[in-house]
Amino acid sequence: MSTTPPAAxxxxxxxxxxxxxxxASYDREVVHSVLDAGYxxxxxxxxxxxxxxxxxxxxxxxxxxxxxxSTGSRPLRTAGRAEDAGLPVxxxxxxxxxxxxxxxxFHHSINYRSAMLHGDAYAVTDHDERTMALxxxxxxxxxxxxDDSRRANAKELAKTAVLRLAIEEVSVKTRTGGxxxxxxxLELPYWTGVVPVAPVYGAPVPADDxxxxxxxxxxxxxx
Amino acid sequence: MSTTPPAAxxxxxxxxxxxxxxxASYDREVVHSVLDAGYxxxxxxxxxxxxxxxxxxxxxxxxxxxxxxSTGSRPLRTAGRAEDAGLPVxxxxxxxxxxxxxxxxFHHSINYRSAMLHGDAYAVTDHDERTMALxxxxxxxxxxxxDDSRRANAKELAKTAVLRLAIEEVSVKTRTGGxxxxxxxLELPYWTGVVPVAPVYGAPVPADDxxxxxxxxxxxxxx
Lengths: 223, 223
Description:
By secondary structure, the first copy, chain A, is of the alpha+beta class. Chain A has helices spanning 28-36, 74-80, 127-141, 154-159; strands at 24-25, 40-47, 50-61, 64-70, 87-101, 109-123, 160-166, 169-175, 193-201, 205-206.
């Protein structure tokens, strides 16, 4: 982890798409930016020979992605038993940026950024790495929050499993811009263009049991 | 498909969570509402013994979910060869509704609704079902759009694979409400509550090649 990572990840058979190759990027900064823009990933693993896709929180720290969960949850239990062997996973993060309305149904699409990581996830057992990862997951949702909350105690840590996945085999797929209609469709009478979409955060809603006068902290998204 | 579906789906070993069981629902209307609220799913399948999680567009029609893709893409190619056998998949749809900030890091969470379907996906070969499914996918993104665009021609249909997954083995997990701090943490000085989040649609951006004077149709999300 002390070596300088390359400017781009090496494409592999799994990360080179069979089509729309121009949409794929292996650039390190692009991969990091897509991972850093989200906090919910979809984690895929195989159980009894069949796929499972679980939404879960994550954080990137350098060239690692961490996910956490209850030690009672299935993927974490599976991986917790696999400290040495690792759990084969595919971790996908997707941001939807727009609805693309072409004149033809066929060319309808969405604008998006999606990172797909392949690899083996390992249970993190080192105490310092575990607490660092849990801080990172909290700070990934709301930067600055880890320092402004009570950190996990020993009992809570014992209930929490943390998995680590190295960012090595990864690609980002991106679609941007307007519709790509066929030349023979340009005279059709349909409206065509893009409807932008983005997550918008509302005003913070205080908990029922929050003491009066405690103001929302400045690190929260502006409501 | 002509029988009346039950009011709830039958829980199975795969759809009963090992923890937080109170968050799980098998209610048919709940499942439908979570599926209908989105248009991007994360489709998991197994390739060479390892998981793959692909973001893709989908639509629900009755008790079926349809996804489509290029006949050149890997999962569709795999399933296209498996008309009889089916492709084991897990299709997950997740909506994030809020960031839950507790006083303790441990109780940080997100409010969300997530549907997880397990089953075997089959390539759809019937022409009428294929065109119906493609209409449904376009209308799922923007209701009313399928009738207001040029439908796929024979050449485009030949390039498009459609998969069908029956809604049978499914659960919805939901978290709502405020943080659930421990009683001994209630006096801690940290702000606590929920930051709501939702996708917001912007004003439609016309394509560069759209003729002047073509107004955005009324079925678009209000920008």
